Amino acid sequence: MTWSIVARDPATGHFGIAVASRFFAVGAAVPHIKGRVGAVATQAFVSPLYGTDGLKLLEDGRSPQEIVEVLTARDDGRRQRQFHLIDAHGRNAAYTGEICVDWAGHLVDDNVSVAGNMLAGPQVIAETLRVYRQKTVEGAPLAARLLAAMDAGEAAGGDKRGKQSAAMVLYRDQDYPWLRINADDHADPLGELRRLYAVAQERFLHVAETMPTRENPHGMIDRRVIDQKIAELEAAREAEGCASASFATPWKPQ
Questions:
Q1: Which of 84, 100, 196, 206 is the most buried (most CB within 10 A)?
Q2: Are 214 and 174 in contact (CB under 8 A)?
Q3: Could you tell me the CATH number of the domain that includes residue 148?
Q4: Are 147 and 192 in contact (CB under 8 A)?
Q5: What backbone torsions phi and psi does residue 52 show, to the nearest 5 degrees?
Q6: Cα dihedral 5, 9, 10, 14 sign
Q7: What is the pLDDT of residues 191-247, one digit of tens each?
Q8: What contacts 172, CB < 8 A, 6 or more positions away?
Q9: Residue 232 in domain
Q10: How many independent structural domains does the chain possess?
Q11: Is the pTM of this model over 0.90?
């Protein structure tokens, strides 16, 4: 029902998944990540257990290839499933059942994999991977790499049925996401993800830097620091004549 990219940034250990489909709310079913553990995308005739149990097995120290064998062996529906995953060491694996709807397949590379089904053709995942590699060489942030890669896959034909939803999830080293954005029902879902990512950069991602972590369970206590930073960024944006990407009502200071 979709195509997706699962990636680990070897420089930081951060994980990311981006996905798009002609299916409602694809972000609710496909991406599963846990910081410092790994990332799993489960799709086609989707089984959420491939995501939830896959992460548990990764946490237990099982390799991605072992997990593919364990999860498919117990599932009589495996011939119509597809999933791919990566662990905290950069080891990855992928599986495409033989009766997934054409075109269906996957590609696995260092710290990244791409998989899809119901696609316009193999060029969709090939272009997704090619552009991800290109943006990695250029030094783009993980989120920018994922979005550019998915745009390339869409330009190569994407889901052969059309467009409806997309999602991007990024985890750093915590049990909660650093960023999770979804376009659940949209005529241009990947374009909407780009808008949402732009909105996140205006305020949300700066606030995310202040949140409590395993190492610092207090987080940033003095909110005046982040409030001042956001105010300075907004002032700079307004001085440059750049409108906000957000649809929100005007900010009302407390």
A1: 84
A2: yes
A3: 3.60.20.10
A4: no
A5: -65, -45
A6: negative
A7: 999 999 999 999 899 889 889 998 999 988 888 888 888 888 888 888 888 888 999
A8: 12, 14, 35, 178
A9: no
A10: 1
A11: yes
- Report helix, strand or coil for 159: strand
Residue 113 lies in a domain: yes
Per-residue pLDDT, 240: 87
Q: Which two tokens stand for residue 150?
A: 């998915």
- Residue 195 in any domain: the answer is no
Residue burial 115-141, b: 16+ Cβ < 10 Å; e: rest:
bbbbbbeebbbbbbbbbbeebbeeeee
Q: What is the DSSP string of 59-123?
A: HTT--HHHHHHHHHHT-TTGGGEEEEEEETTS-EEEEE-TTSPSS-EEEEETTEEEEESSBS-TH
Bridge partners (DSSP) of residue 40 are: 32, 85
CB 4, CB 32: distance < 8 Å: no
DSSP state of 200: I
Q: Name the phi and psi angles at 123, rounded to 5.
A: -65, -20
Amino acid at 90: G
Q: Which domain holds residue 48?
A: 3-187
Q: Contact at 8 Å (CB) between 199 and 185? A: no
pLDDT at 253 (0 to 100)? 66
